[in-house]
Amino acid sequence: MKPSPILVALCLLGGCAMAFEGGGLLPARFAPPPSVAEDRLDAPYVPTPEPVVEAMLDLAGVGPDDYLIDLGSGDGRIPIAAGRRGARALGVDIDPERIAQANLAAQLAGVEGRVSFRRQDMFETSIADASVVAMYLLPDINLRLRPRLLTELRPGTRVVTHAFTMGDWAPDQRRVIGERNIYLWIVPAVVEGRWELTEGNGPPATLVLEQHFQTVGGTLAGAGGVASIREARLRGSDFSFTVDTASGPRTYRGIVSDDSIVPESGRAWRARRVG
What we know:
By secondary structure, this protein is α+β, with helices and mostly antiparallel strands. 21% of the residues lie in helices and 35% in strands.
């Protein structure tokens, strides 16, 4: 008698050594022993529980317009969950067993048209097109990846991690799920430097900004003297700050675009980078 397609799929699934813990397809006791390749991996294979996966995607606001890249994707549960939300997703892992497992899981979930997996070193993976990057890696790996996240990703790209932080790059948000921490960063635009700010027909003022990731300070020097900026906020390309003038507090809100800052509304001011 010819075996049914369902039976064949279940046999393949078992052969692919699923380890979907925390709400996956099979209990963890059926998981295979660690892959022989795992002693050569940058991070060990430790699956993220499904409730934490969903919380990570919620924190990052993942939706149909997003392209998520999961660095160290393991069994593929984060890209697959993103695909269920209508997002496109790519999972990257160096272990061929995990890639095979993830591809089969994507087929069974019906998201293979939106979700793909690639056997590749995460440090060699292009991330520039991502709107969201997900990671569950060790702290030293996060720090090794941090320069690429800050320079290759577009301002406003969201980075979400399970358990571990980015050193002195403070997260924009933190959430606790059970006993587990998840963190969100918004990649900031580069605003540090010297800017010429013009407002209406008045003389230009000099805006000097200092930046530590999304934390910004500095001064605005014009005809009225030099004033320290306060309440500066940088979230992606959105930038705002307040200065105290002789006529009262003045708040500037704008969008950083390459070497210019343009107002988010019709107010007649702008800044251009001059150093």
